[in-house]
Design goal:
The chain is an alpha/beta fold. Helix content is 30%, strand content 19%.
């Protein structure tokens, strides 16, 4: 346990950050362009972008998101077919209209398959602490076709692919072929509320509502093979309908921190940073010294303890489940000069037997 600060120091709480705020970027025929529009239901989408857009991949994805339990979304109508990744970052166009958004956790570019575009989106997710939910090619029928399409795209724990496309009914009641990412994002939101962001969104608890059929059939053996490459397959279960069969990122299996090959571990790391960084904003006007480090460690420890009680980690004891470190052994001399405080967090995710190590920074007065 971390030593508690003296009673003269005011304790600060750490509110948990939202975990499934989803950003959608894509082409539409009407509505404001290059603006991140906040939405809480599909009726709001039609009010802004028009009911006539309900047959587009973006509209179908947003509709599936809310149908599966999504609550909060931002939609950016891009003026270009490539989701605006070649647009000006400085001018906040296309994908980069999300610069105006304080926080999003999931990113969908419905139907986009260009590896160059996806790589740019994945880079942006890494910068923003989010996870890209990518769609496999619409007409891919075999594992080989899926893997070949994404071979040029470098692998990363900040992205996951979902296959195959799905048949759903749009808001007008017409059966349409839709990319799966929007429904998956809504399912993640539902799973977070019911079970926690640390639980794997796969199997019987990962049902996709509104899916009438799949565009391609995937065997269990094929789904297992694809999961090893960060492609998560949807399969039909006789009693449940469509379910997500795995929860893997595109993280290379031969690199360090293999736990981040699992979606809940990646999202848990993002959640910790999204929660602690704003909660530690009070430190920017404090002297960067030992009393401050003790207070920061106590605040982070209190937050991690609450998650431990909620069942977010492996381990029967706190020492087995997580650790927090903030002090002379985690803060470098250059950090002191620049007014930076490093907090080292380690946690044992439910999906793996090893620790994930995470460094979070906050600001203090430079020495």
């Amino acid at each position: 346990m971390i030593a508690q600060p003296s009673s003269a120091v005011q304790m600060h709480a750490t509110p948990p950050a939202p975990t499934a705020v989803t950003a959608f970027v894509g082409a539409l025929d009407a509505g404001p362009a290059n603006v991140a529009v906040f939405l809480e239901d599909y009726a709001g989408f039609e009010a802004v972008f028009g009911a006539g857009s309900h047959a587009t991949p973006l509209a179908l994805s947003v509709h599936s998101f809310f149908a599966n339990g999504g609550k909060t979304a931002y939609v950016v109508r891009s003026a270009t077919a490539d989701a605006g990744v070649r647009a000006s970052h400085a001018l906040h166009q296309g994908l980069y209209a999300l610069e105006e958004v304080d926080l999003f956790n999931l990113l969908c570019l419905p139907g986009t398959g260009d590896p160059v575009v996806l790589k740019a989106a994945e880079d942006y997710c890494r910068d923003r602490g989010a996870l890209l939910l990518a769609d496999a090619p619409r007409d891919a029928q075999t594992p080989e076709q899926v893997l070949a399409a994404y071979a040029p795209w470098p692998r990363s724990s900040h992205a996951a692919i979902f296959h195959p496309w799905v048949y759903v009914e749009n808001s007008a009641g017409k059966r349409m072929l839709a990319p799966p990412s929007g429904g998956v994002a809504g399912m993640l939101a539902r799973n977070d509320v019911a079970r926690g962001v640390w639980k794997a969104p796969a199997g019987n608890t990962a049902r996709l509502e509104g899916v009438r059929a799949l565009h391609a059939e995937v065997s269990e053996a094929q789904a297992t093979k694809l999961a090893e490459s960060g492609v998560n397959c949807l399969r039909m279960a006789s009693s449940l309908g469509a379910v997500c069969w795995s929860a893997r990122t595109r993280y290379p299996a031969d690199l360090s921190v293999p736990q981040l090959a699992h979606i809940p571990a990646r999202r848990m790391a993002n959640f910790l940073e999204d929660s602690l960084v704003p909660a530690l904003d009070w430190t920017r006007f404090e002297r960067n010294d030992a009393p401050l480090w003790t207070h920061i460690a106590a605040q982070a420890e209190e937050f991690m303890h609450g998650l431990f009680i909620a069942g977010a980690f492996q381990g029967m004891t706190e020492a087995e489940a997580y650790s927090v470190r903030c002090g002379t052994d985690s803060i470098r001399p250059e950090d002191l000069n620049q007014g930076r405080v490093g907090i080292d967090l380690r946690f044992a995710p439910l999906v793996a037997s090893q620790f994930v190590q995470l460094r979070v920074h906050c600001l203090a007065e430079p020495r």
